[in-house]
Fold this sequence. Notes:
This protein has 300 residues and is of the alpha+beta class. It is 44% helix and 19% strand. The chain is built from 13 helices and twelve strands. The longest helix has 16 residues, at 255-270. The mean pLDDT is 88.
Amino acid sequence: MADSELAALAATQGGLVTYQQARDHLSHKQLKTRIADGRLAVVRRGVFRYPAAPTTRWLPLRAALLSAGPDAAASHCSAAEIWRLPGLIADCPEVTVPWPARLRLEGVRSHSSGAFPAHHVTVQLGLRVTTPARTLADLSALVGPQMLGRLVDDGLRRRLLDLDDLREAYDVLACRGRRRLVVLRAVLEARLPGFYPGDSPAELDVRRILVEAGLGEPVPQYQVAVGGTVYLLDWAYPDDRIAIEYYGWEFHGGRSAFDHDAARTSALTAAGWRVLIVTSATPPRTMVGNVRALRAAAAA
Length: 300
């Protein structure tokens, strides 16, 4: 009976149990016997695994969390992997515990935080993990503003968080004198209420190039009504009636998309708009030069 109850508990934890959980069901002698005969395997000190349980990529992290205690959570790069934030891979389990606890586990990168409220932790994939907003706030100490901005925009596009969540995480950490929050502050200052994260990183690159070239801030997702149809422009300079459309192959490569795009461009052109098509192969200098030329033509 004790074995079946322990196995049932392990099934909820990826096939893992802690020493204390095992001792709640087994005597010390019974536990040693099950380790000796292979019914339980030592994963790390104080954590055991049922060998028949499936092995997953999260096994080392799950074992680290169990060893760290009930208040620990996956954080930083480990949390970024769980939330599928692009470009970040944890080279070892990364875990945060609330201060004053100190964590020293072999092969684990640990953090202790004095600003670690309960609402900054959630459960994903059956693992305790920092929320997307808290994860991005923590990562601001590891990456630069451009990289962090891309991660934030990815989270906004996938609705993992909103800017209010990120500002709240910033405020909580700033109150504790957290160092290197200057990167997060810069990212937030560039993303005021109403900020549009684009449908893809490439769309945001279009905006960045235009702004850095001194062409001013284009209006995202600008609506134009033509003949009873409303068209949504990726970026626009409404005063000059210039539309800038980013065409990615994944959304514009098929026959139906080709026909739709052609009809759309024709309708906008007939309504007096100058439509500039940009792709991943368009050099920034060419795009900037074309926008300047269109703006000059509009002025003429």
